[in-house]
Design a protein that fits this description.
Shape: elongated
Distance between the termini: 45 Å
Largest sheet: none
Oligomer: single chain
Radius of gyration: 22 Å
Helix content: over 70%
Structural class: mainly alpha
């Protein structure tokens, strides 16, 4: 919990007021003051990260969010922000890792929509990321979105087939057919596997 120190609370409230007015320079200054009075406060750090992001100071915003992520490992929001900023800065490895972790953390909180959003970011950045496709497949299946689930199971099947794991690829194609027996892509995948041909890439 943030301290009840009046000066800290005042600085934080001033920051929130400035942010409400979209005065990000003033907001950032207020949040920095709050953190000088009481360092390591996730609330103030998160708010500072947002203000710096709005000011286009992405490296500094990234630092703030990484600090929050260390202090609050069960909070997926800073991880999501790290992924977004890292992607913007062209650091795709960090973006992928942070988005995967954000997805897992949102899943623990039973926020499937946000988990899907983050895993989808991963597959957009690394289209052959088997774990992200696999997570998406299970999430969509859980939500009853069969068409999307089939697409993701076939993506994992293709990745695993190309990695030399034909048996697992067959298992996933069968899973897709179990969900939608008449799905044209799943039927085509089954036919390609039988004749030893490569499945389409994700």
């Amino acid at each position: 919990m943030p301290p009840n120190d009046e000066a800290y609370q005042q600085a934080l409230n001033d920051g929130h007021s400035a942010a409400w007015d979209l005065d990000w320079t003033k907001a950032a200054a207020c949040y920095r003051r709050a953190l000088q009075l009481s360092p390591d406060q996730p609330n103030a750090l998160n708010s500072l990260g947002l203000a710096l992001y709005q000011l286009g100071e992405f490296q500094e915003a990234l630092k703030a969010y990484k600090h929050v992520a260390r202090l609050s490992p069960d909070n997926p929001v800073p991880l999501e922000k790290i992924a977004q900023i890292s992607e913007r800065l062209g650091d795709l490895n960090v973006a992928v890792e942070a988005a995967m972790r954000a997805g897992e953390t949102f899943l623990k909180q039973r926020d499937l929509d946000k988990a899907i959003e983050n895993w989808s970011r991963v597959t957009a950045l690394r289209r052959e990321h088997p774990l992200a496709h696999s997570r998406l497949a299970m999430a969509y299946e859980h939500l009853g979105q069969k068409q999307q689930a089939v697409k993701e199971y076939l993506a994992v099947a293709s990745i695993l087939q190309r990695a030399g794991n034909a048996a697992k690829a067959q298992e996933l194609v069968s899973k897709a057919l179990g969900l939608m027996p008449q799905n044209p892509e799943a039927l085509q995948a089954e036919s390609l596997l039988k004749t030893g041909q490569l499945l389409p890439q994700p």
